[in-house]
Design a protein that fits this description.
By secondary structure, the chain is mainly β. The protein is built from no helices and eleven strands. The N and C termini lie far apart (about 40 Å).
Length: about 120
């Protein structure tokens, strides 16, 4: 089992940047595929990006490709989301998630563990 805690959210102007972090407990972090999802008010939870166990395979949603970058540091049990060129439509609660699946699923139902979320607000 793994526990996830996100941090780094906040308020930023359009065009700005934020870096989210997700710290995981436990000694098996490197055995999990990790992902970020987001959920805006009144909308379903949406896949953003996933990274495989070694960090060598990535999968991005088209809406963030070229602007967001995911990375992980298995020695620190942490996954990061660097968000650049932020837009008002990126405003949402961002969740970190983990799955034991080797592929990079985009369905939130495939993920077993979730953080509490961190709010990102982008003003126009």
């Amino acid at each position: 089992q793994v526990q996830l805690v996100e941090s780094g959210g906040g308020l930023v102007q359009a065009g700005g940047s934020l870096r989210l972090s997700c710290a995981a407990s436990g000694r098996t972090f490197s055995s999990y595929t990790m992902a970020w999802f987001r959920q805006a008010p009144g909308k379903e939870r949406e896949f953003v990006v996933a990274i495989n166990r070694s960090g060598g395979l990535l999968r991005y949603a088209n809406s963030v490709k070229g602007r967001f970058t995911i990375s992980r540091d298995n020695a620190k049990n942490t996954v990061y989301l660097q968000m650049n060129s932020l837009k008002p439509e990126d405003t949402a609660v961002y969740f970190c998630a983990a799955t034991g699946l080797l592929l990079l699923p985009i369905s939130h139902g495939e993920y077993d563990y979730w953080g509490q979320g961190t709010q990102v607000t982008v003003s126009s």
